[in-house]
Amino acid sequence: MNAEPNAPRKLLHLRMDAAVDNALEHIRDNKIVIVIFSIASAVGDFGLLWHIIGLVRSIGNIDRLQQALIFSILIGLESLILNQGIKRLFRRSRPTEKGDTRFALRKPRTSSFPSGHSSSAFFSALVLTYFTAWPWWLLFYAFALIIATSRVGVRIHHASDVIAGAFAGTLMGVIGLLVLRHYGV
After folding, report:
1. Is 14 domain-assigned?
2. What is the full per-residue pLDDT of the chain (185 aa) written as tens digits?
3. How many CB atoms lie within 10 A of CB 16?
4. Is the dihedral of CA 147, 148, 151, 154 positive or negative?
5. Is residue 11 domain-resident?
6. In a domain, 61, yes or no
7. Nearest CA among 143, 133, 148, 125 for reference residue 74
8. How far is CA 98 from CA 95, 103, 128, 157, in A?
9. Phi then psi for 50, rounded to 5 degrees?
10. Residue 114 belongs to what domain range?
């Protein structure tokens, strides 16, 4: 009998984390991957990429400027809820303290679980999809996937952190969309 009832489930996510980390190892020395993952992690800091997209969309259009301001407020709320709320419930250590030395990174100050970059990316992709038409959502989700994958690639997050972050961001995005629709934005 297991001393800990959740031991098999814990072992499964640890094995998945190790398998994904090992799968990414063979590309970590690739110069293009180093540049892409370093940039993706940097533009994911504080939702920078998403704020820029919101502002660029607003050039020359007052309605879109209002959307960009609302969007930035929503990103701020998502970040606050995740980083100061949800992350405080978990104290998971990161795969490495400062990330893999092959990549240029800012050292995070919060715990590893769930990934804030991943949450922000999927939250933003979903909300931006609400404000824009097809085919832009493909680009938003491509950016979200690159940012999320970069966090595992640079060894700042475990794969399970990124998956949980994507789920949390998507859930908060759905709630955000309900609020936007309720207020007719």
Report:
1. no
2. 445 555 566 677 778 877 777 788 888 888 898 889 899 999 998 899 999 999 999 999 999 999 999 999 999 999 999 999 998 898 888 777 777 667 767 777 788 889 999 999 999 999 999 988 778 889 999 999 999 999 988 888 888 999 999 999 999 999 999 999 988 88
3. 14
4. negative
5. no
6. yes
7. 125
8. 9, 10, 31, 11
9. -70, -40
10. 26-182
Q: Which residues of 69-88 are buried (b: 16+ CB within 10 A; e: fewer)?
A: ebbeebbeebbebbbeebbe
The residue behind tokens 């994904």 is 20
CATH number, residue 145: 1.20.144.10
Domains in the chain, number: 1
pTM of structure: 0.87
CB atoms within 10 A of CB 181: 10
- Largest interatomic CA distance in the chain: 66
Positive/negative CA dihedral, 83, 37, 53, 172 = negative
Residue 20 lies in a domain: no
Q: Which of 91, 158, 161 is nearest to 119 (CA)?
A: 161
Question: Within a 10 A sphere around the Cβ of 131, how many other Cβ atoms?
Answer: 18
Question: For residue 8, what pLDDT is reported?
Answer: 61
